[in-house]
Design brief:
single chain, alpha/beta, Cytidine Deaminase, domain 2, 9 helices, binds zinc ion
């Protein structure tokens, strides 16, 4: 699947989340043959669930899969993956992570690369504008989602692991 098409699926989920009053982060897991295995969006607000981020929600919706299904797959996500979602991608051996933007938040990209995952940042203005709008409107909800009291850009020590 073309990476921009995959990201569009993730962005559609993020927009749906925004319309629901939630945190607008979406994801899509696409198999190596182009099949869409799952879609998901952050459900912190909608479900009161702190572990359903875009990517983990997507993995949940994809259901139980044999490990071979993740081989060669791509996780499309509108925002740079946090530590939890970075770990989930590594756990299931997802081969590629395609990211909409990493300007509003920078997650575990360097660690993913270090572990052999292909990481592509598409620098999507649509993804960034949606997150900026949300963070401006609901800064407290956003801070809650990333586990801080005040906004941070990254907790990653890039020098230590790159
Ligand atoms: Zn996450």
């Amino acid at each position: 699947m073309d990476d921009h098409k995959g990201l569009a699926l993730a962005l559609g989920e993020a927009q749906r989340g925004y319309e629901e009053g939630g945190i607008p982060i979406g994801a899509a897991l696409v198999a190596t043959d182009g099949r869409v295995l799952g879609l998901g969006r952050n459900m912190r607000v909608q479900d009161g669930n702190p572990i359903l981020h875009g990517e983990t929600s997507c993995l949940q919706n994809a259901g139980r899969l044999p490990s071979s299904a993740y081989q060669g797959s791509t996780m499309y996500t509108t925002l740079s993956p946090c530590d939890m979602c970075t770990g989930a991608c590594l756990l299931y051996g997802i081969s590629r992570v395609v990211i909409g933007e990493n300007k509003t938040f920078l997650g575990g990209e360097a660690y993913l690369k270090k572990r052999g995952v292909e990481v592509i940042v598409l620098d999507s203005p649509e993804c960034r504008e949606l997150m900026e709008r949300f963070i401006t409107e609901k800064p407290k909800v956003w801070n809650e989602d990333i586990g801080v009291e005040e906004r941070v850009y990254t907790k990653e020590n890039l020098e230590g692991i790159s």
